[in-house]
From TrEMBL:
Gene3D superfamilies assigned: Spore Coat Polysaccharide Biosynthesis Protein SpsA, Chain A (3.90.550.10)
Name assigned to this protein: Purine catabolism protein PucB
Magnesium keyword on record: yes
Record-level Gene Ontology MF annotations: nucleotidyltransferase activity
Keywords: Magnesium
Pfam families in UniProt: NTP_transf_3
Domain MobA-like NTP transferase: residue ranges: 5-159
Amino acid sequence: MIPVLLLAAGKSSRMGSRDKLLEEIDGVPLLALLAERALQCGPTYVTLPSADHPRRAILSKAVTVIPVAGEMSNSIKTGIAALPAEAKGVLLMPADMPDITANDIGKVIAAVQESDALIVRACTANGTPGHPVYFDKILFPEFENLDGDRGAFHIAKALKDKTHLVPLEGNRARLDLDTPEDWDRYRNRFS
């Protein structure tokens, strides 16, 4: 079993008074949209700033919510600790990546099944590493040393030679929306 861990415990501080994960795409809050896409591929865990955070109200009851405080490293460590023992590894994904589809998530999971790499990572069409990123269970002890807001960057960098890249269409493996300006550009890209 390969669970998806959606990282959604951030404060959305660069958005001013708005919550980027509650911004809507085609009438659906971004976090709900990504959680539904992840659920199509397997068990889905979502880190939130608290169990009663407003983001909880838009999530399906099928997701497992993991309350966590602190930076991204805390979110990853707490999320991994909450995974079931039978998890083969974990597929980490920030929850602010609107163009990642269920097919993309499935493509990375399928590549895990076909590869003996410790890390299987989505990349852009031109090969730039991005998300989602699968980490084999054997690497879970490495996450105990994480700190700060850089996620698992150092773990992935140190194991570049044990990483298999999975190209996704265009720039979707790198596109995230952190600011109101990002959202405006995203919404106006087809105008």
